[in-house]
Structure formats: C-alpha cells, structure tokens
Amino acid sequence: MMKAVVIDDEPLARSIVSEYLRHYPEIKVVQECSDGFEGVKAISQHKPDLIFLDIQMPKINGFEMLELIDDPPAVIFTTAYDEYAIKAFEAHAIDYLLKPFSKDRFDKALQKWLMKRQHEKQDHKALLPHEQIRQPEERNRIVVRESGNIRIIQVNEIHYIEAYDDYVKIFTAKEMFLKKKTMSLYENILDPSDFVRVHRSYIVQLSQITRIEPMEKDSHVAQLKSGAKIPLSKSGYAKLKTVLGL
After folding, report:
1. Residue 120, pLDDT above cutoff 90
2. Which CATH superfamily is domain 2-125 in?
C-alpha cells in the first residue's frame, strides 16, 4: 500500500484530491493537512510515498515546508497561481496541477508518478526546485528547525552566515542556527544591497560592519557590531569596497 499526504489550506481543495485518490485503491491518504507545519509533522510520522502540496499557504509556504524535510517524498504541486514558474515545476517536480483541475488532469499527473516509480529509482533532490525557484517572502525570512521546533528568522536579524561542511551557520544577535543549504543559495537570494559574500565561507550584512582592519600580507577583516571578526578574501575585500563606495 502506497501512502499519500495532502497539504493545502483550502478544505475543498483537500477534499477534491482525496476524492480523486479514492479511484486508486493502492494509494491511501494517511493525512490531510491545512498548513506547512502540519505537513512537516505528517511526513515525519507517516513517511508517505507522495505528497500533494499547495504553494501559497499561511505561516510557511510549500517551498519553505520542503526545506524542513531532510528526505522529502515525491511531490505533485497544486496551485491557483500560474506565475510560479510552471515550466520549471514541470522540469523538476513530478507534475503540477493548476487549480481548478479536472480528474482527467489529475489522473495524468498521478500516472506520471506511478510510471516513474515503477521504472526509475527516484532521485528526490532532482525533483524538487528548492534552490531554483524562490517565493518573494523567502527573501525576507528563513525557516529553520531548533530542538524539534520550527523557527522563522527574519532576514534583517541575520548578522552573518558561515559555511559549515554541508550546512551553513546563521548568526543573529544572540543565537546561531544550522541549516542544510549552500552558501551559493543565500548569495543568490539575499538582497545584494544588504548582504555581501566577502569570503568563500562568509556572507555579511553590510549594516553590521563597523570597520575594516588590515591584517598581515595584505589581508583584511571586517569587524561587526557584535565584536565578531570576519575574514575578507581579496575578491571579497574588493567587492566590499565597491559596495561601500570606498
């Protein structure tokens, strides 16, 4: 028996997906969720094979929810908005369903997944466009896990980001958070007028810099309001001087 979870803040949308799935006795809907937080818990509990995921939801959106899952299941996106890079969804996700969708369209999406499941060993990382497509609110906040709880960090709270193996460390005034993402991702999504990558291992919020100090052999460090000292690479130093107009 294959398991599915339906995640959508609209009760009618959830009921339509569940109703269509009744025609597939080999698939059981183990839970319906009204927001991303419930979705994370349901996926952790049930380990579904497939999720139907809305994009625009309150609290956290569909992309942010997926970021909280280490090994996400296959995803069929459901959305009422065609501006969310539909062609990219087709390339990276199993499929997308543009609301309102017919049973025939639903069947085509599900058959696509069933065929892929049958003939290929799924590579979930290739299926999900986490690092290619970002929603506007994701440029203003970062969702992290902390001791089993979900925290939302506003971008303006971040002092700097440091590379840490396959993770990044996100530093705020009093706390540090780990997130399994790349430096390149944050370099691309953070506002370049506020954040600058000054070293292969560091991204700094410009407003936190109090001064730039020379070090040995033409190297430099940036001192932050918190007292932290961030090393600057040669290219990072040049970039910082350009941005600051030095």
Report:
1. no
2. Response regulator (3.40.50.2300)
